[in-house]
Amino acid sequence: MIIYLHGFDSSSPGNHEKVLQLKFIDDDVRFINYSTLYPRHDMQFLLKEVHKLVSESKDEKPLICGVGLGGYWAERIGFLCGIKQAIFNPNLFPQENMGGKIDRPEEYEDIATKCVENFRLKNKAHCLVFCL
């Protein structure tokens, strides 16, 4: 199973193409749509949805992937749910570059500092980053 998280522009027609491309790797691709506007809510929602998908799946090696802002979430949620991640052109510091696009960019800073200390160091063997 591959879980796909879209980037900031969730209405992009490219999302459908990306899901179709992922189906060449695994027939079971799940798309989770989230708001992108409220980071704390998004994190709780994504944790719940990903945990549910993983626990209901018979796949022993699920993968979560994301593009842009979805890469930010895939990295964190994958770490917290114990699954490997592949992230493409991830927005790793939305608190620094999303001002004016979202209502609460400071929530990303809060999540980054309070979630898990040094999680990127702890997660480095489980996340593959593609910068194109």
Automatic annotation (TrEMBL):
It comes from the Bacteria. It holds the Pfam family UPF0227. InterPro entries: AB_hydrolase_fold (IPR029058), UPF0227/Esterase_YqiA (IPR008886). This is Predicted esterase. It comes from Aggregatibacter aphrophilus.
